[in-house]
Amino acid sequence: MNFNIPIITPRYIKIAVLIVIMHIVAIFASLEIPPPPPLTEQPWVSGTTTITLNNGVLRIHGIGTMEDYDEYGNYPPWLRIAPQITTVFIEEGVTHIGDFAFTRYRNLTSIIIPNTVTTIGEEAFYGCTGLTTVTIPNSVTTIKKHAFSRCIGLMSITIPSSVITIKKYAFSGCIGLKSITIEDGVAIIEAGAFSKCTNLISVTIPNSVMTIGKNTFEDCTNLTSIIIHNPTPLDAGSQKFDNITTKKPTVRIPKQPEVDPRAFDYIHLHQTCLYVPARSINAYRSAEIWKDFNCIKPIASDEISVSWFALGILVALILSATLFIIIKKSRKRVTANENLSLQRHSD
Q1: What is the chain's percent helix, strand, coil content, to nearest 5?
Q2: Is 178 exposed, middle or buried (0-12, 13-18, 19+ CB in 10 A)?
Q3: CB 85 within 8 A of CB 58
Q4: Which of 133, 134, 184, 194 could form a disulfide with 206 if both were Cys (CB 3.0 to 4.6 A apart)?
Q5: Does 10 fall in a domain?
């Protein structure tokens, strides 16, 4: 029995691909993304908080947490008037800023976060291009992923010591960011946290940081200064974690301090200088990942400390020598006086 097997030509392949694409387009066209909810009367309720708007100021008050929102239908009830919002004022008592609460509020220029907030939600301020400064209080323990991504107006940021984890891509794409200071206490910097901050010039990493994730500083092409206070270089580790429960929320702490081999992808290592404790320069020059930096220098404060220490030793030596000379001359004078006295008695 003979079977006629059709020959598959490039023309048939193109037709088949076109049919598949048309089916995919039809499927996506049939999906309905709910529109933003109709504007309801103030005050709005979000979780255990109450929210009002007056003259561009969105005020959030109450005790506890805001509701978490998303981009698939569960929108914040004030979304339709987002262009009117220029300031977000969060009062004392609020503990959680909701996920997607203020995503892409481009006219937002100021946010006030009180000392009771512990968590800044996922994409909470994503794409708020009008923000130029943000003060994160020393009560925040977690900055969730994409919390401030694409806030292109931010110029500097300080991560307080209360924060344990900076989640994935928390500040990714903040192209106006020039300096980052991470205070002692932060333990984990997750993947891509500061990636694509193309104007970032300097970053300070404290001794407390135990892991630096993949692509953390990817594409930070203007980065020229990385100050690391840890005297022991982080290893290129295996990303194994333990769950640690403290007074703060349970977090995953790496079993061994480590840096991902791709943490510094696509930055110009020849123009970036690594500043480390003076006694640790040789350790960094021989450690994996860190040795790829052409420039490794002592932290300026260490140089000053060494200089003052050396100066102190020099001063001590000069004082000792001076005191020795004075004592020696004094003894010679006493001896001479004694001899003169004896000579007079004998005469």
Answers
A1: 25, 20, 55
A2: middle
A3: yes
A4: 184
A5: no
Tell me whether residue 245 is in a domain. yes
Cα separation values, 29 from 150, 176, 196, Å: 29, 37, 33
Find out whether 276 and 252 touch, Cβ atoms under 8 Å: no
Which token pair is 15? 């037709």
Question: What is the 8-class DSSP label of residue 184?
Answer: B
Terminal C-alpha separation, the chain: 153
Q: Residue 26 burial by CB count (10 A; 0-12/13-18/19+): exposed, middle or buried?
A: exposed
Reported pTM: 0.73
**Angstrom distance (rounded) from CA 265 to CA 29:** 38
Which CATH number do you get for residue 210?
A: 3.80.10.10
DSSP conformational letter for 200: -
Which pLDDT tens digit goes with each residue over 81-121?
A: 999 999 999 999 999 999 999 999 999 999 999 999 999 99
Q: What is the largest CA-CA distance in the chain?
A: 153
- For 151, residues 6+ apart whose C-beta sits below 8 A from its C-beta are 125, 126, 127, 128, 129, 131, 134, 171, 174
Pairing type for strands 225-228 and 202-205 reads: parallel
Total structural domains within the chain:
1
